[in-house]
Amino acid sequence: MDAKLLEILVCPICKGPLVYKKTEQELICKADRLAFPIKDGIPVMLEEEARQLPAEEEV
């Protein structure tokens, strides 16, 4: 994941910062508890594609 791209990407819902999880290939929004997938190196920043993080999963 390109560091410059990570600097400008924000959560499409709350416009908050995202955390890159390399092992899961996801961008995490801590505020909304959503994980946006990265497919073939491209972040999929659609709410309907995001995975809701369970309460017990640490972000």
From TrEMBL:
Pfam families: Trm112p
Alphabetical list of SUPFAM superfamilies matching this protein: Trm112p-like
Cross-referenced InterPro entries: Trm112-like (IPR005651)
Listed GO CC annotations: cytosol
Domain of life: Bacteria
Family to which this protein belongs: In the C-terminal section; belongs to the UPF0434 family.
Protein name: UPF0434 protein HNQ59_001699
